[in-house]
Every structure is written in C-alpha cells, then in structure tokens.
Target: Calcium-transporting ATPase
Amino acid sequence: MARNSFRGSKRGRNAETNHEPEFSCTLQDLRLLMELRGADAITRIQDCYGDVNGLCTRLRTSPVEGLEGKPEDIGKRKQEFGQNVIPPKKPKTFLQLVWEALQDVTLIILEVAAVISLGLSFYSPPDTERQNCGKAAGGVEEEGDAETGWIEGAAILLSVVCVVLVTAFNDWSKEKQFRGLQSRIEQEQKFTIVRAGQVTQIKVSEIVVGDIAQVKYGDLLPADGILIQGNDLKIDESSLTGESDHVKKTIDKDPMLLSGTHVMEGSGKMLVTAVGVNSQTGIIFKLLGASDDGDGSGEEKKDKTKEERKNKDKKDKKSKFKSTQDGAIVEMQPLKADGELEKKKALPKKEKSVLQGKLTKLAVQIGRAGLLMSALTVIILITRFLIDTFWIQGLPWLQECVAVYVQFLVKFFIIGVTVLVVAVPEGLPLAVTISLAYSVKKMMKDNNLVRHLDACETMGNATAICSDKTGTLTMNRMTVVHTYIAGRHYKKVPEPDLIPTKILDLLIQGIGVNCAYTTKIMPPEKEGGLPRQIGNKTECALLGLSLDLKRDYQNVRNEIPEEKLFKVYTFNSVRKSMSTVLKNFDGSYRMFSKGAAEILLKKCNKILTASGEAKVFKPKDREQLVKNVIESMASEGLRTICLAYRDFPATDGEPDWDNEAEILSRLTCIAVVGIEDPVRPEVPEAIRKCQRAGITVRMVTGDNINTARAIASKCGILLPGDDFLCIEGKEFNQRIRNELGEIEQERIDKIWPKLRVLARSSPMDKHTLVKGIIDSTVLEQRQVVAVTGDGTNDGPALKKADVGFAMGIAGTDVAKEASDIILTDDNFSSIVKAVMWGRNVYDSISKFLQFQLTVNVVAVTVAITGACITQDSPLKAVQMLWVNLIMDTFASLALATEPPTEALLLRNPYGRNKPLISRTMMKNILGHAIYQLTLIFTLLFVGEKMFDIDCGRNAPLHAPPSEHYTIVFNTFVLMQIFNEFNARKIHGERNVFEGVFGNPIFCSIILGTLIVQVLIVHLGGKAFSCVPLTLEQWLWCIFLGLGSLLWGQLVSSVPTRWLTFLKTAGHGTQQEEIPEEELEELNDNDEIDHAEMELRKGQVLWCRSLNRIQTQVWLCSSRKLLFFKSDENRGSQGMNTFAYIYEPSLIKVYYVMYVCIYIYIYIYIYIYISTIELHI
Model:
C-alpha cells in the first residue's frame, strides 16, 4: 500500500532564487486547476508540475517548512494571488435608510394630509365672510390667526421628519451592531499553518497562496488547496456539491480540498492554492453579487445562480446537516459578505421564535383595533360637523365655503391618522430590536457570543439543558492522577524507576506518536503558573504524564516526524479510539492505540506484566481489571484511558488496512490511566440556580457511566435519594426502539422525564434525545431545549435544539456553525447568564407593552370622546406625534435596556402558551387608564373652572392655543412620564424604583423627556398648540402626574384573582388550540402577583396574631383557675391580695387592652411589610 503522505524537501522554497521575482504559475493556472476533481486533477498536476512537490517549487514554498513568513513575500503573494477576504457588500447609506423609513403607510398618509393642510391654509375665501361658513370657521377678527394656520401642517411635516430620522438612525445603529458582531466573529477565527518550520495560528484573512495549512477533524477549510499529507481524511462537500456523502481524500485519488467544506474525520496538510474571491466559495459569492467586482451582466448571473442554488437546495434536504447549503456562505466567516445574511434569512434555520409569534399576532390585533378607532374618529368628526353646520345652524351650502369645508375635512383626517399612528404599535419591533441588540452586546461580556438574535429570547423560555461534561461542567484541564501499569495500581504518578524500561519506552513512544502533533504542552505564560495545554486536553494529560515520567515526548516526535507516520486511524464517535501505524526498517509494522478503557480492553488479548513481558489476557482477567481498577477510578470521577499496541510481523504480509475490525484486535495492553478533570467551582451553584428556575439539567457525555455519575453527583445534577435515571447509550437505544429497531416516541416519553445522565452516548443518541424531548407531548407545555456541543458530529443535535451552544475554545468550526450561541469560555455558568438575559428580554418587551397599551387606551379614548363631544381632539396632531415619540422610541429605549437581576431565576419559564400580557399586566393597564382618563376628562370639562381660565372647547378652525388645552396636554404627558416608573414592574411589585439608578439610559431618557416637555410648553407656541403656563399651573400638572405613582400602589394592592373578568392577550399562534377552561387554569397557575403574595402573607400574619392572642387568653384563664384552686388551702391574707388583681371586671379590661395592643402592632407590621417589595 502506498503511504498516504508526502515527504517534501526544504529545497522547494529556495529553488527559486531572488533573481526570479515572479512566481512560475499564474492565478489563472491555479483557478483552472482547482476546477478539476479526482483523476482529472491528478493528471493536470502530473502534466504541468510533475507532482505536488513541483507545484510547491513553482509557488516558492516548502511542503515541510512552509513559507518563511517575511512581510515582503506575504505582501507580494497578496498582490499576485489576492487576499483571503471578500469585499463585503456596502452597507446602506443613511439616506437609503431614510427613504425606507418614509415607505411606512401611516407616515405617507400623514404626509399627504399635512401637505393638503399646508396648501389650504394659505387659501382664504376672497369675497365671503368666514362666519357665513359656520361658527367653527371663525370670524374676521381671527383672520390674523388664520395667517398662521400653515404652522400646524408644517409642524406635522417636521414631526414626520423627526420620526423618520429617528427610525433611520435606529436602523443604522442596528446594522452597525450586526457588522460589529460579524467583525468580532471574524477576528476570533484562526487557522493552523506552518511558517518557517513552526506550527502557528494566524487569522484566516492572513492566509496566502503557498501557505502549508494543517487540517484536522472539525475544521472548516478557509481556502482551496491540494493535499500533501493525509491521515484517514474525510470531507463533507455538501455545501458546494449538494451531496451528503463524505468524500475520502488521498494524494493518489482525490487531493483537491475546497474552501467552505468540513473536515469530518482525520487530519493532514494542504498547500493553499486559492484564496478569497478566487477560491471556489469566493467564485460563488461573486456570482451571487456579494462582491462589487462583477461585470455588467451581474444581474443575469445572479438570477441564473439563484435558480441553480434552488435546485441544489432540493438535494440538500437529503443532507445530514440541514443548512449546509448556506454553509459555504455563513460558515466561511472571514470571507463574510452581508449578502449572506439575506441569504440566511431566505433559508430560515428554525420555526418562528416564541416571542416573535406572540408579538406578530398581538401587533396585528392592536393594529386592527387602531384602524377601527381611527376610522370611527373621522366618521364621528365629519358627522358632527355636518349636523352642526347644516342642521343645527341651518346654513346653506355655499360654493365660496368649499375650501373651508375641505380644511375641516383635512383637519379631521389628520386627527384620525394621528389616532392611528398612536394606536399602531410601530414601536414594538423597535423595542424588540433594541432589547435584543442591547442584550447581545451585554451577553458578549458574559462570554456568550450570540449568532442568531432569536436564540437570546428563546433561551429565556428554556425548560431543559442537555450539557456536555468535559470543559462545560468541568475545567477541561486534565491531568493523569491514577495509573495501572506493570500489574500495579498507583494512586499517583509513579517514579520512572518503578516501571520496567521496556514498558516505559513503549508507553512514551505510544504517547508521542499517537497524540495529534498539534497537541503540546507549552511553558507557563507567567513564572510559577501552570503549563499551558494546547490542543486536545485528554492528549495533553497523556503528554503531561510523559513529562512527569521524566521523558520528553518531543524527542520521539523529532525522531518520527508526522510525515513518517504510515497510517492514522483518527478518533471518532464510532471507534472511541485513535490508532497510529509506524513502518519499521525490516518491513514490519507497529500500531499504537489509545481509547476508552472498557472498550479497548475488549480488543486486548495480552497485557504487559511487571517483568516487561506480555502475558495472555483472559476474559476473567479483564473483568477483574474492570472491577478493581477501572470502576475504582471511575467512581472518583476519573476518565479512564487504555494504552495498547500491536505488532504486525513482515512475515505475515501486508495487512488489509481497510479492515478496521481485524486491525484493531489482538492488542497488547500497556497501561490504563485515570485522568482527572475537576468540576468547575462555580458549576454546582449554577445548576442549583437552573433547578430553582424550573430548568432541568441533563448530562450527555461519552464517558464511562461511573465517571459520569460521580461528576453528576458533584455538580448537583444527581442528589442523594433522587429517583432519576443514569443510563448508557446502549441501554437508552434498547429502551426507545421496538422489535423492528424503530424509535418510538411513546418509549422515549417513558424515559426522558426522569433521565439525568446519559453516558457512553454517541452524537446520534444526543440528537435522538433532543428530538424526543422537543416532540414530546407528555407534559402540558412543549419543552424548550438547549444543547451544548463541541464536536463535528454534534451538529445535528445543535441544529435540532431550540438553542444550540457551541464551545468557543474546544469546539470545532462545524459545531460553531451549527450553533446559535458560542460560549467563549466553555463554562456552564455562562449558560445560566444566557437564561437571565433571555428572560430579561421577555420581561422588557412586556414592560414596554404595559406602558404602550396604557397610553394607547388613554390617547385613543380621549381622541374619540373629544371628537364626539367637542368636534375636536383635545390632543392635537403634533402633540400626539410627540406622545407617540415618547411612547415608542424613547420608551422602547428606556424599558428595553433594563439590566437583568437574579430574581429572574426565582420563577419557572413562561412557556410557549404564556401570554405576553398577563392578567396582572391587564390590571395595571386598565387601572392606570382609569386614573388618567378620569383626570383628563375632569380637566377637559371642568378644568377652566378649576384654574379660572378661558375654556378651550369648541374653538374655531384657526383659534390660537389655549391655557386650558395646554394644561390637558401637559398633564397627560407628565402622567405618561411618571407611569414609565410603574411600567418597570409587571408582576405587581411595589418598589418601582428598585434598581432605577442601575439603568442610566432610563434615567437620562426620563430627564431628557421632562426637559423637552418644558421647552415644548414654553416655546412650542402655535406649532405645538401650547401657551406658557404659570408656576402654579406647572405644580398642579406635576402633582397630578405624580399621582400615577400613588395610584400605582393602590392598583398593586388589588389581588388579580379578584378581577376574574380580566382577559390575557398575546398568546401566540397556538392559543386557539387551547381549550378555554385549560387556558384559564393556565393563567391562574402561572400568574405572578405580588398583591396576592402580600395578601397571603397578611393572612398568615393575622392568623398568627389571633393564635397568639388566644394562647395568651388561655394562659391567663388557666393561671386564674389554678390560683383560685390553690388559694383555697391558703390563708385569707393571700386571698385578699390576689382577689383584687384577678377581679373579673378588671380581667376583662386586661383582655381588651391586650387584644387592642396586639391588633395595633400587627396592623403596623402589615402596613410596613406592604411598603417594601416582597421577593418571590
């Protein structure tokens, strides 16, 4: 068998001297080469270059030592062959975003109405007295005011401009944040290459043609290349070809490696031959128009390519990874173009998120109600005007008054549109975007790199977490602490003198060559620190064992470089082992193996003894070793690894290396080691928080069941006395499959509720478990599952989960691509922070809704009532636009940026059927609406008498602003500002100021809104229909606004269960599927109401007090009875002394005083408790 490797020379890089500045092959030559596959590619290489070594010589590089790495050489290669980046699509300009914001239908209607109003304001009937057109038109004395009638139309246009600019700025900020997120991902993306003979990691964007790149299991190839040395290398090329079968890569059959494809097995080295827009992925990007370098026929190419991609999509549905079609686009992070994001949206990863579904339905409902109210307002205004003008006043239709009538119609139309603007929750998507973007930014500091925004809020509803063990629950810093070698079990690493030399030599050589050469132990960064572990941590532990035995593994690697390895069977989830074959000088072979102890021991038929010789290893010996050594190690939470070898004599001929079952048998056991991976100190507390928050944590690991059980107990997943399942993957599969071997959901439903640990599991076991939990209907609400994964084969489970967490440190590129969130510290406690942020997003949206709907109800009711009674809206169009700005943009900023608190983890997940607007929130909305409407209508109809000012009702068309309506407007705005504090609490909590200073955005917005409101009242004039108010009037407005806070305390005191008529809203798409009685029960069970808690606490308090009083009365009565009985035997002096004290009438007085004092004390305590916030 030909060796699947290439031993190059150092002369490749130096073959071209400095006298030959140009490379001996062109960019076009390499592009034509990379378009070929299989035998055609090999033929082209042989015809044009001789072999891969010849191509290296042409590119002035060495297949062994790589490029020298000189800056001038790197720069020349970038200039000649391009950089490994694709120019991203230019972001939308601010003007483009402004234009998009102007496309809003309601704003367009408002603009048209404002332009008509503006045009008509300059027209006045030439020969007709205005009073002939009706009282509301105004008389000659108001003509001067009529000249300023244009101000309202101009002010509306100006307000529209403000709204558009704010919307565009928010969109611009959002896009900037997304680009920042992508930039963060790009900066963290690195790849391993060889330069100047040293293995190093560089940014993917710095890779150039001629680099020698090391590829390994789990990598996403960042450039095109040709294989120069491979070990059992298999590639998933479905992202480019649509074929899901893994392609085996060898030098003599198919050496072509393509960017955007995944390494599913094995390792190797490749010569980089194309980067950036010249790579296969880059060419596709260019055709899609992601790059600006396309020619005039770019649109035609784009359309054609889209058709081709659609056809490929059909093939991709058969693929193991659902979204690998866009994998080449999204996974190639450094070759990122924003067009990819649009592609990603076109191929949604999952169904609509919980929050999105609820918000969409709620927004539609509110929008329809707003449209109905708006139309009703316009109809009422027009009807009142017609009745008043042509019936009550009895005026005839005059041609000269048509312009005045049109002005009235436009005014009514503007009022109707502004009601619609206020009613339609256009601030809702803004609040969601701000809340998610803010959370994503903050989550980065908590080591959560969010790749899909919807995952943030979905995590808040998580009910189950299926977590890996290594690195997530444990520290992923492994060390060998137990060894079984030469027939003895050592509880610590033995001295080298205690191990026979032959065994020690075999052990060190096996560790050196049978661990990935990219894995190594580096000196500590700081003096006195721990050595740095680079690469696979299990292999690092074995390399550390070599150093502890006073032997340097690097000497072995120097003697046997990676190019000399004959064959490597890399680790995968099926083998559960790794084997490396060496060819000896005499033609024989030696294979070293390492893997899971109980699995590899079954393949051993010999074991090395204390004499250094091998003896027969019988099944009975194996059972004894497993029981006495492996189970002992596993019970202490150690990972057990078996190290073995096998010799293939030359006399037996060439083995069939493809027959793995035969090759990996008849091994000789060298040693068994126990590797400790300590539990992270913060994990037990994090798991307790999850359990308290109603989230079930399950461990899914490939480790031994005893090791898994020990670690689960240390973490708190398994507690003493718990009746939970801890099973292996094999037993799990037996339980969930029927006689035909098919998986049945009913069988899974019998297992997963009690399952806490799944050991010796494969990635498909994890996928089956996740799918089974998600599809289960055994519980009332659908489970929301989060999964952690680090391996390539974890991709299906990460994709299937509602939220997939990939390990940022130990995770492969494939796992990261399949995930929604990347844990940059691989720590379980970071998942708990993600839960907090997810729940905070949900609560932030609910807070905003509570505030917005209160304003909606009040503003729309005032507008309609005012239209019915006064033929005008008390809140003018511009004023309502200002209120809309407060309600939408500012409120979304203020309430959507509330930081999370630990209290969020003290309740169960809301669930998919939980309404966005709970009954407690509905109580708050209606309660505050009643207060505000009562005050507004009081001010509207008797305000002129209260403040002794002129009445502002029934004013003519162009009447000047009045103090009356200014007070109404000012009070209304101040009530909304102070009600924002009430909106911060959605479960009836009393202390609405708690943590307010921890949110500087909220404080600054409240302060800024107050300042702008003062400026509007005093400087707004005709534009805002305001006149300056006196200090006394301002104090009254502030007093009435502050009343919202006091009223809020009263509303919070009413238990929600008393208000059975209240209904919830915002259930999402599945509400109609829930029976009415179940829905009511669901609402009652899940409702969080602090008023109810206070009531219960008060009831408990009263019960305790009454029991105490009764006990005291009973004691007094008992003492009195005992005294009189005992005193019968005493003298008359004792009788006289105590007769006065226990005289019946005085005892009654004592009782009454005692009861009164207790009642007073407990009333005082109850009032005190009611004034502080009660935690759940």
